[in-house]
Amino acid sequence: MKYKRFEDLPIWQEARVFVASAYTLIKTSDGLKKDYSLLGQFKRASSSIMINIAEGFERGSNKDFAHFIDFSKGSAGEVRCILYIMLDNKYIKDEVFRDFYGKIENISGQLSNFKKYLVKNTFKKTF
Q1: pTM, to two decimals
Q2: Mind listing the pLDDT tens digit for each residue in 11-29?
Q3: 8-122 homologous superfamily
């Protein structure tokens, strides 16, 4: 399959939806809004997933792209950890934790699969 823009990638689209959900969560959690350090880290880690997918796409090779997918996957792990901190500090309820954890775990799995694809195949990007 050929993709002309990173915006066409399904994994980028899903990461974008996750980031929008994260920002909505931030707006609804009074406790999180006051924890500036954790709030900033949550924003950066969430956003980093989609940013690194985009940056990797713009690189010239599958090897480079796969490297940036690794960064995205690392950020997804960071988000999972932050979710635990948010839960433990009662910034979010258990059901919100489970929902967000499931979404980010799904994204992480897709990133792993996409990296395997990149390593095995020639990714087609058209200009």
Answers
A1: 0.90
A2: 999 999 999 999 999 999 8
A3: 23S rRNA-intervening sequence (1.20.1440.60)
